[in-house]
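TICKET: design request
STATUS: open
ATTACHED STRUCTURE:
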């Protein structure tokens, strides 16, 4: 699903995480932790965008949603290995493309329902990813 050395990829690697400003701790994180950070960063950006919509802060909403789109495109989607990842990688690629579209629409229309849809789509992946970490640590 992901490249063999996800963290070394120029698009899906540590540079992408730093570029989308997910947070600190990138340098010492495993590839699994990096993906978890992207999921967390995406949820955080969506929450910031929702708060900005409610507060009528258009520029802040735009920045938060732009950051969310970058996390999806430059972090999550760019890290997929479509050649070796099979159907799962292709489905995730489609999901991430759809989410980027919905986030863009949310930005254009200040649409909280579109933001909610993106959270509903990413939460199962985020939870499943966290379970993988728990199982491998045990």
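STATUS: resolved
RESOLUTION: sequence designed for all positions
ATTACHED SEQUENCE:
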């Amino acid at each position: 699903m992901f490249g063999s050395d996800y963290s070394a990829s120029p698009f899906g690697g540590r540079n992408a995480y730093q570029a989308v400003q997910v947070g600190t701790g990138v340098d010492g994180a495993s590839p699994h932790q990096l993906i978890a950070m992207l999921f967390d960063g995406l949820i955080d950006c969506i929450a910031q965008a929702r708060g900005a919509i409610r507060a009528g802060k258009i520029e802040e909403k735009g920045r938060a949603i732009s950051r969310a789109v970058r996390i999806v495109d430059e972090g999550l989607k760019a890290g997929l290995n479509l050649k070796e990842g099979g159907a799962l990688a292709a489905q995730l690629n489609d999901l991430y493309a759809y989410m980027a579209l919905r986030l863009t629409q949310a930005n254009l229309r200040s649409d909280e329902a579109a933001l909610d849809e993106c959270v509903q789509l990413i939460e199962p992946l985020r939870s499943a990813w966290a379970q993988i970490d728990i199982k491998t640590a045990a």
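CLOSING REMARK: Confidence is low (pLDDT under 50) at residues 4-12. The CA atoms of residues 18 and 26 lie 7 Å apart.
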